[in-house]
Predict the structure.
Amino acid sequence: MDNIKIYLDNAASTPLDREVYNVMTPYLLDKFGIPSAHHGYGRDAKAAIEISRISIAKLLNASPEEIIFTSGGTEANNLAIISTIECAFVDHVITTPFEHQTVLKTLKVMQRKHDLRISYIRHDEKGNLDINYLDYLLRTNTRNLVSVMHANNEIGNLNDIETIGVLCEKYKAIFHTDAAQTMGYYQHDLKKLKVNFLAASAHKFHGPKGIGILYCRKGSRLSPSLNTSTENIPGIIGLAKALAIAYDEANKKERLIQSMKDRMIDKLSALVPGIRFNGNSADSKKSIAAILNVNLPQTLLNRNLLQYLDDNQIAVSGGDSSSSHVLKALGIESGSDNLRFSFSKFNTLNEIDHVAEVITSVYQTVAA
């Protein structure tokens, strides 16, 4: 993968910001103590963690004690879901078929272990959730956990977590949201948002891998036995710095990323006959700017389009809909190429133009 020149798979992982790397370096080389140690190195480590916790809490408008550090988004989601089911005696979970596989798999395991009932919110062909059906599910069941992601990692659909939170509060349900794709892109106000748990991962917003956060609202029950590993101090420092940078750059970055997405939509729409956009990914009001999911006609290449782009030093993700539970849930038939382009502040409009040219050249060659 060292020869990849254009990286458009930022929904999977983003490149580390140089400023983030710089603040992490001392905690990798010199300040290597652990916070439980009873000496200066340990005290320095503990102070660094708490300063980072306070910084993150301030940005999210939360209390420092509500910020829990995890090894990433997967652990954060699992910690919230398993704790709620086992400590709050939830017996009914309401979710969607579009959640990240780590959430869906955890729910299936807990279903077998605790005889849970799982309900899935109805949706239309674009993946828009039926909020009235969610209201019905909440109204007709008790001891509910609602787990709905803020934005989908494949098609970029934004879910109305503000309205969902209000409904959960009304029916005394516990609300967990996976905000991995929106943390660092949206400025979450956790005093206003009616959510019990919110999970995020630093490597999705130019922070380091191996560190995430779980917001746990005061009064929410959490199992202490599920989060007992030694703190990743360089990661915590890096996460706090990455989030601060993201908030500082928010407006400028959103405009830049949206301009790249619009450019890709315009070029592909004009040059590739039969192109479609999956979910709401081409709708700027209903999806996040960073993700565009495209359904393309099959080519006559002797390899799929994803591999062709890789051979041309362009990194994206996707493939046939049979490999994606999200595209399957949307009813997208197999036999066509589906590509997810995901953009970051480190991409350029020139890169977008080049990628669009490489893709359209395939179809122009076939047409000729």
Summary: The two ends are 32 Å apart (CA to CA). The chain has ten helices and 13 strands. Residues 33 and 44 are 7 Å apart (CA to CA).
